Each structure stands twice: as structure tokens, then as C-alpha cells.
Amino acid sequence: MKRMDYLTWDEYFMGLALLSAGRSKDNNTQVGACIVSAENKILSVGYNGMPIGCSDDEMPWEREGDALDTKYPFVCHAEMNAILNRSTGSLKDARIFVTLFPCNECAKAIIQSGIREVVYLKDLYPDTDSVKASKRMFALAGVTYTQYQLTGRDYVIHL
User: Fold this and answer.
1) What is the distance, to the nearest Å, from the Cα of residue 103 to the centroid of all Cα atoms in its chain?
2) Catalytic residue at 11?
3) Of 53, 69, 94, 153, which has the most beta carbons under 10 Å away?
4) How far is C-alpha 158 from the chain's CA centre?
5) Is the pTM of this model over 0.70?
6) Helices 104-113 & 129-141 angle (0-180, nearest 10)
7) Closest CA to 97 of 51, 138, 140, 44
């Protein structure tokens, strides 16, 4: 008889997004993303961080202050990193699992890359223009988005 308590596909992929978020050096917001094909094959993962070659120790991580003294003009979001990190092939008709609802810049990249579905864990900023713009573009482009429903299951990884 087969084991019955295995992870569902959605648990597995959101788990990978959450695990990827653990790589972020951001002291306030850790975001992870996992892109999968229609056949449930992992195409890429990403997390929010500085661009390659920009030292995490030399770049700002602050949320407030002069623009160039904050993280905002520099950090590459998890969704963008996952899209840029794919090694081969197309993202057409793929799904992206992400721990935070995508901003408008990531929404544009998601749409342009051919991803057709966004599964997100949290929508912390639904009243911001950025998220409103994302939802408007997703609707116009036919990209669906659904909030991941926590199953309440604990899955512990000892490292």
C-alpha cells in the first residue's frame, strides 16, 4: 500500500518558495519564488536579493532614508530572479509560486515570460498602486492568481 501523507504538488512548490526565501539577506522581507511547468517540473527558483556582483555587505538594506540609501532601487525581487535564473526553455504556460503577491514590475515580467498562473501566499499590500496595477495587468493578460491555502501541516527539515 502506498504512503498517503505525501506532500501535494502545491505544498511541495510553495515549500520550495518558502525555503528559497530563506536565502534572502533582507532583514525585513524574505520572499521566495518557484516556477513550474504544466507537467509539474521545476523550471527555476529565486529569492529577493542584490544583483550578481553587488556585494550584499556593501549594498543598503534599509527601508527608509534617501532613495539611494535604501534597498529599493537595487534589490532584484524573487519573481524576477526566478525568471532570470531559468537555465533553458520557455516559461510559456508555467505557474509561479511566490510567498508575496507580485509588484507591478514583477507582474510585467511574469506576463512577458508567458507564465499563466500566480499562486501567492500573502498579499500584504493590496491597497498599494503597485499591487492594484499588477492585478489590472494580470486580468487584461489572462494571468490567473490565487491565494495558497495553508494546509496546517508541519514539515520539518533538519539541516
Assistant:
1) 10
2) no
3) 94
4) 23
5) yes
6) 20
7) 44
